[in-house]
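Handoff note, outgoing to incoming analyst
You'll be picking up this chain. Sequence as last confirmed:
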Amino acid sequence: MHNVIVNGNDFEKMNLILKQIKNLRDAMPDGNIEIVFTRSAVKALLKNYENIDKINDLIKSGIKFFACENSLKELKIDKSELAENIGTVRAGVMEIVEKQELGYSYLQL
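Most recent structure output, in case you need it:
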C-alpha cells in the first residue's frame, strides 16, 4: 500500500488541487492519503467554503485532511470555523517532514 502526504498551499488553485487529489484517489483506491493545507489553502477547509462538499466526498473515500495551525493563526481563523472531520497539525511543514521520515511519498500541489 502507498502512503502519501500531500501539501496544498494556494487557495486560488483549489479547484485544480481538489481535482488532482481526486485523481490520486482514483489511481490509488487503497492508498493511505493525507492532505495538509497550509498558507491560504486552509480557507478551503472552512464550513462555509463553497466546495466543501467536494472535500467531504474525498473524506468519505478515506482521505484525511488537516489544516496547519500556524496558517490558521496567521489568517486569524479560529479552529471552530473548520468543517467537520478536518484535523489540525501544529505546523504543516513539520508534519510533512515527519511523514517523509516515516516513508511517506510527498506530493506538492
